[in-house]
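Dear colleague,

As promised, here are the two records you asked about, laid out in our usual form so they can be pasted straight into your sheet.

NAME FIELD: protein one
SEQUENCE, THEN STRUCTURE:
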Amino acid sequence: MMMRMRRVALWKCGTLFRAGESKRRCITTLYSAGDGYLGCLGHGDWADRSSLEPLVDLEKRPVHIGVVAKAVTIGAGWAHSAAVLPQRGSAVVWGRSLDPPMSALMLARWSQYSRWAPRFANALSMALDLGNHISLVPSRVAWPVATRVVSVYCGGGVTVAVDAKGKAFSLGCNDKGQCGVGEVSHAVAAFRAVVGIDAPVVSVALGFRHGLACDRKGRVWAWGKNDNGQVGSSELDGASQKETLERSTPTTLTVPRAKAVAAGLSHSACLTQEGHLFVWGKMRSEKFKVAKTSKVFGEQVGPAVLHYDALEPRQVIFPKNTPPLVAIAASNFHTAALDANGDVWAIGPEKLSRHMVLEPRRLVGTDPSSSGWTIRSGVENIALFDDTNVYKVVLHAGTCIAETLIDIPEHKTVRDVAIGWKHSLVLLDDLEKRPEEEEEETTARDDVDGEKKNPPPLSGRR
């Protein structure tokens, strides 16, 4: 166990070495893959990438994060992406960072009929400068304070960055108050402080049009659109889901002391310091009925009872003897948790049938490497990864399984993953070569080039 913990600690600090070898630095590089018509891949064009490629800057050079001594954070939203450059302590953003998520849905619909339609719309927007602020490569964003940026999060057209003092700042679409700046407007074009939160922020999650934050005191704050109770308000009547509430100022929720939050399309979740999972919002749909009496969220649900949205946080009941949870994640419709034994659990709709699985299912059939599992929230999928593999969490036929999400190149180590709507970001570590290794490679290349220029004579040739 000690050896395993030692290895994980070394991996996280950006240095790997073998017995008898001198230390090597890990060079961390940011890669992306997916659909390119939303402009959020960061390669300087609108082309799709079926496999991972390194991002480029304004001069078409790969974006190397460099030698990293601390955690690097990346974010992927519906139509934009973001990352923190630790050496400079600044945030970079690219894609459609101010657009409402509905515009991404519209472009996707157009792409089904013609692959040229979204490209024409993007070119027109950039040519006329219609306020979209589209950037095809990572671009630095003005930071309003002198402190460094330490983490960044993306959602439906919203970006939240947190500085070294735990202060949260946001920019993006604000038509439902999802920026949390105390007012509703078309967009917040530059980073502004998220209002109301009076303690350092330790965790942030952004949904389709709402946001969550957890502070150092263990309080959960919520803001934005609340049509399905995702902001945790009991003001909505459970029989009438037509009323829409918009909260532009974060307010606290009644939950036990929390340490992390997660957000989906229209639902929310938090992890308490005691290791319990609470969820609220649109966890259930009135399209589905309970086939038999079962205990869900600690309540007895009878046959043929329509599911209703959870307007206030409710604890998810896990099987007896399940150890405390240590991490949670969410996607549009799913919620996952990692327990102290390294097991992964999930709830949400099943693949294909869309039947709602409300009792947590444990992941089966896939084992992690020695470093163990890490889970990350995503728009389309929940990412599950170890050193060399990236999977997505899937519920199928009543069980929780892992399916390959991204193919990782050989000799690379996965540092972090961010899953957007139509794209993925991956931070990969690669060992820095020693001078003697670089000299050997250079010599080998020169030998090959020399053989090509001066091929040896063929045997028997006159």
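NAME FIELD: protein two
SEQUENCE, THEN STRUCTURE:
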Amino acid sequence: MYKTPDIVAQRSRVLDVLGLQPGESVLDVGVGPGLLTFDMARIVGADGLCAGLDVSEAMIAMTKQRCAELPSVDIRVGDSTSLPFDDATFDAVVSTQVYEYVAEIDLALREVARVLRPGGRVVILDTDWEAVASRRPTIACARDESSTPGRSICTILVFLILSPAASSKPAFRSFAGR
């Protein structure tokens, strides 16, 4: 499933938008089998840090095995609403197909902002699979409060920049449908 052409292309697009550089620190919230984590660890290299967490110990074990030969990888069991990292630790945070399952999405996003350095970047990708199955047009990127907690009404790719002057007020840019 994670190696189908569409998912591989999606992972590539997330990496492009994230724009990681060697030596940066990045957090993967919800590592799953660790394919994105592996790619990011290779990009940031030995001088960087690629951290990841997942609620599933099985996914953590899979990711640790996949990334075992890579330097500067820190994989932990953890929850998106209580990230086990210090404030302002990461240059970038990424999460794919995770927040659609998080009931306390506001708390999870506050945690992302907390661990992100001023000027840092966030890419969040979630898909409302019901919308995809019904072929509803993607016309907006906003939460449908009547649906399952944390679910979006479209595929969302969010790029967040926290500037040093406004670190308490994140500015969101959406890249839906691109």
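A couple of things worth noting about protein two: The longest strand covers residues 116-126. The chain is about 30% helix and 25% strand.

Best,
R.
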